[in-house]
Structure formats: structure tokens, C-alpha cells
Amino acid sequence: MTRQGIDSLGQSKVASTIGTVIASFMVGLLLTMPVNADIIAGKQAMQEERYKDAIKLFGPDLPTPSTSFEAHLQTGKAFLSLGNAKDALTYLNNAVGLNELHADALYTWAMAKGELAEQAGIFSAFGHIKDARKAFEKVVQLDTHHLAGRRALIDFFAIAPGMVGGDKKRAMREVEELKKLNREKGLVAQAAVFQAMDKTDIALSSYGDIIAEFPLNMEALFNRGLMHRDMKNYEAAFSDFEALIEVSEIQQGDLLEAKKMHRLGQYFFGSVASRSAQNSAKGIQFLEAYLEAGLFGEPFRKGFAEYYLATLYMEQNNLDYAQELAGRAKQSSDDKSLKRLLKKMHKKLRKIKKANSKKA
């Protein structure tokens, strides 16, 4: 064979090899594209708060080795956003099992454990709380810059009973660590610890300082609004919750968090309107917008929102619609405190209707 023939043969083999590599790459690309597309589409649905759609989109990726971890993690997050901690844990257990050193997966798992603790009986709750604490501690060990994990650990130490590891001094030590990473978040966490310690004046003053320095801080407005509500400083509470609604509309950072805080501002403005029998028209406006959005975070909030709205319509003497809303509230939640409120409301409705019939 001539040198030219040898060169031609070599070139042919090279071309054949390149062709095989390209073909293999294209097959691999075609196989991974739908899977990646599902993950991307699911995450987009999450950003748009279409959590049920997201769960469906992640479904085909759950058994696929290359995407199983991400699909389980995101599905768990979606269920958690729907207020379903039990189903969230089913997927988050798998995610953590697939990658136990992933800080965000462990953080989300711990958050689900914390929410489950709130819904569980006292003995089961202690187990969930202890699990959450260990997980939060591991999160900040795995990633010292995991701000949400450190904040969750601070909240745990500040709020949890001593018998399950609550420790307010430890909370303050963690606050100092958080300040080093992010001063604004550290200051808010510090004010929240003062609030948990019932140091009301210091907490209110701290939130005021934060809002003066960081006027777009949603958590400071929200927490101070709750404090004013509980102290029956209703005008101040209205002011903070309305400011929260406005501020949440111009956020440039975490838009999902902004949407969540926007709805909480609407819900709590309405709750204050119901409690104080003031600002009923605006309270109705915000509660109706809250219910229309259909995203309640905590399962009981839908029922309470319907109850608050019912009381406001009752104030406006729209008794039939108030009664209809009260019926919806009863169907929406089994919360015992809500049932007691509804029972009182039904008695009041009967009295008003009776008085109105006598006038007629």
C-alpha cells in the first residue's frame, strides 16, 4: 500500500472515530434534554408559585440517577410550600439519603421536621424538634455561610424549650456569627431573640432602628406589626402591615419571599381589622386578595382568613354572606381555636338577625 493509501486509511479511521463520538454525544444529549427540560420547567413553575404543576414536572425525573437528587429535593420544597410537611419529608428523606452532605437539602429537611413538630402531638413533636436542631447544626458545619441555616438555628435556640435544647445565650452567640456574615440579617435575628425573651421595649426599639437603616426590610416590618397587634396597638399594626404590602412590591432580591411577605401583610392587616373592628373596607380588600391567590403556607390560614372576612362583612350588616363565609371557614380547617371563634360568631349572627326581624 502506498503512503498516500495509508494516509487515506488513517484519515478514514479518524473520521469514523470522530463520527462515532459525535453520534454518541448527540444520543446522550437527546436522552438528557427532556430530563433537564423537566427540571428547568419545574423550577420555573416554582418561581411562579405553581407548586402542584412543579410536582408533576419533577415526577419523571425522580427515578433517573442523574436527576433523582434534584427532583426529590425540589419536590420536597414544593410540598413544603403547599404546607404539606408530611409529604415533603417523603421526598426530602430520599434527597438527604442521596446526598447527606448537601447543606441546602439538609436545611430543607430540617424545616419540614420543624413544621411537622408544630402539627404533631407533644411526644412526637419532641423527636422532630431534636432532629431539626441536629440538622441545623450540621448545616452550618457543612456551609458556614448558609445564612438561612444559621438563622434557623438562632430561632431554634431562642424559641425551643430548654428540655429539647433551647438556649437563649447560645442564640445570641449565633447572632454574633450571623452579623459577621450579613449585618442586616444579624440585626433582625438579634431583635427576634429579644422578642422571644419578652424584652418588648428593646425589641421594638431594635426593629425601629433596623427599619430606619434598612427601610425595605420586610421581616422587621412584619415582626414589629405582630408585636403591635398583640399589644393592641392597632393603628401601629395597620401601619406596619400596610408598609409591608407596599415594600414587598418593590423588592429586587428574593421575589418568592417578597410574594410570601406580601400575602402575610394582607392576611394580618385583615386579622387586625377583624380584631379591632376598624378599617373594615381595606381589611375586606386585602383578605379577598389573599384568598384569591390561593397560597396559604400554613393549612389553617385559609379558614382563619375566611373567618376574619366573615366578621368584617358582619360589621357591614351583610349577614347572609358573613354566614356563608363562616360555613366555608368551618370546612377549611379543624383548628380548635377557630371552631370556638366560629361558635361565638354564629351566636352573634343569630342575635343580630333576631334583632333585625323585630325591627322589621
Explain what you see.
By secondary structure, this protein is mainly α. Helix content is 81%, strand content 0%. The chain has 17 helices and no strands. The chain has helices at residues 3-47, 51-58, 68-81, 85-98, 103-119, 122-142, 147-159, 168-181, 183-196, 200-213, 218-230, 234-248, 255-276, 280-293, 301-315, 319-332, 336-359. Helix 2 (51-58) packs antiparallel against helix 3 (68-81), helix 3 runs antiparallel to helix 4 and helix 13 (255-276) crosses helix 14. The protein is globular and about 70 Å long. It starts with a helix and ends with a helix. Residues 1-15 and 17-34 have low confidence and may be disordered.
Q: What is the overall number of helices?
A: 17
Distance between the termini: 117 Å
Query: Which spans of ≥5 residues are poorly predicted at pLDDT below 50?
Result: 1-15, 17-34
Fraction in beta strands: under 5%
| Shape, per Cα inertia axes | globular
Structural class by helix and strand composition: mainly alpha
Helix content: over 70%
Mean pLDDT: 89
Using DSSP, what is the number of strands?
A: 0
By oligomeric state, this entry counts as single chain
Radius of gyration: 27 Å
How would you characterize the largest beta sheet? Answer: none
Give the SSE string. HHHHHHHHHHHHHHHHH
Provide the fold topology.
Blueprint (H helix, E strand, L loop, with lengths): L2 H45 L3 H8 L9 H14 L3 H14 L4 H17 L2 H21 L4 H13 L8 H14 L1 H14 L3 H14 L4 H13 L3 H15 L6 H22 L3 H14 L7 H15 L3 H14 L3 H24 L1
